[in-house]
Specification:
The protein has six helices and nine strands, in the order βαββαββββαβαβαα. By secondary structure, it is of the alpha/beta class. The protein has a single domain (about 5-200), classed as Aminopeptidase (3-Layer(aba) Sandwich), CATH 3.40.630. It is globular. Pfam families: Peptidase_C15 (PF01470).
Length: about 210
């Protein structure tokens, strides 16, 4: 049976939970699209996060890799289009590192685009009754670091799709950030199940608008 690797992060930035791991951990050993899902937690640490991710990829030889991260303040499931080759941390990671304007891969390309059918995934998630959109930036913190490193690793393995999804706060987190949007864990889980199934089924992405004006 083929394997799907899905990752979430440990808490960071003073939060007691990270919605990505809270949801992703529940998908471990699920069967989606005839594939076994394996969940792994990544540290919210520059460098170490990629070491853990790369080790999991080498051990599992997955057909699909989907990394998931928290994006507090976002209102919906956001499927990332692109990762850029820079670490520029507004806050320190969980080991106190705060790189500024440092390339993730020396002499690497400026950016890597997701190899997932991102627009088909967004449409499928919306059709499941869950708000979703294409995101044009994964930031410059550890999430972007992981997305860029993932796609750089997979550059010579076109048969393996890879990409990143950002999710909102959980309600209990938003309660501590008055006015911040949130999404229930059960809803996020359903969105990720749909995203994985779509990514496994769709070979060529659909041509629908997913752009932004700012």
């Amino acid at each position: 049976m083929k394997t799907v690797l899905i990752t979430g992060f440990e808490p960071f930035g003073g939060e007691s939970v990270n919605p990505s791991w809270e949801v992703v951990s529940g998908l471990d050993n699920a069967i989606i699209g005839g594939c076994r899902v394996v969940a792994r937690q990544l540290p919210c640490v520059f460098g170490e996060s990629l070491a853990v991710l790369n080790g999991a990829i080498d051990a599992l030889s997955p057909s699909l890799v989907l990394a998931v991260g928290q994006a507090g303040g976002r209102t919906d499931i956001t499927v990332e289009r692109v990762a850029i080759n820079v670490d520029d941390a507004r806050i320190a990671d969980n080991q106190g590192q705060q790189p500024v304007d440092v390339p993730i891969v020396a002499d690497g390309p400026a950016a890597w685009f997701s190899t997932l059918p991102i627009k088909a995934m967004v449409v499928a998630i919306r059709n499941a009754g869950i708000p979703a959109s294409v995101s044009q930036t994964a930031g410059t913190f550890v999430c972007n670091h992981v997305m860029y490193g993932l796609l750089h690793k997979l550059r010579d393995v076109p048969a393996v799709k890879g990409g990143f999804i950002h999710i909102p706060y959980l309600p209990q987190q938003a309660a501590q950030h008055p006015g911040a949007p949130s999404m229930a864990a059960e809803t996020v889980r359903r969105a990720l199940e749909v995203a994985i199934a779509t990514a496994l089924q769709v070979e060529s992405d659909i041509a629908v608008t997913g752009g932004a004006t700012h």
